[in-house]
């Protein structure tokens, strides 16, 4: 079993920055993908960014490309999401997730492709 815990959410003005963290614990494997998703009220959960735990490689949704950066610290089993130039439409609950699918079909951007999820952290961007 894998346990994921997000932190770092909060209230920020438009144009500001936040850094989210996701700490992973439990059974780990050498190769897996970590992803960030978000869900705004009344909307479906959507993909934000993903990173390959071994060998690098990142992938972003078009809506955040150039503003958000996903990174990882393998020694700490932690993945980060640096969010810059935040917009009110970035307001959502942000979730980190993990899957164990092979890298041969990378990238993975669908909710159904992820097996483990954190509890989420709220990000609110005021205008």
Itemize the secondary structure elements and their pairings.
Elements lengths: L1 E6 L2 E4 L4 E9 L6 E7 L6 E7 L5 E3 L7 E6 L4 E6 L8 E8 L16 E2 L3 E6 L1
Parallel strand pairs: 2-11
Antiparallel strand pairs: 1-3, 3-8, 4-5, 4-9, 5-6, 7-8, 9-10, 9-11
**Average pLDDT, to the nearest integer?**
94
What is the chains' assembly state? single chain
Q: Can you count the helices?
A: 0
Helix content: under 10%
Overall shape: it is globular
Please state the structural category.
Answer: mainly beta
What fraction of the residues are assigned to beta strands by DSSP? over 45%
Low-confidence stretches: none
Give, in order, the helices and strands. EEEEEEEEEEE
State the end-to-end distance: 40 Å
Total DSSP E strands: 11
What characterizes the major β-sheet?
Answer: 7 strands, mixed
Radius of gyration: 14 Å
Provide a descriptive summary of the structure in words.
It is a single chain. The chain is mainly β and 127 residues long. Helix content is 0%, strand content 50%. The strands form 2 sheets. Strands 2, 4, 5, 6, 9, 10 and 11 form a 7-stranded mixed sheet that branches. The chain has a 4-stranded antiparallel sheet with strand order 1-3-8-7, with no helix packed on it.
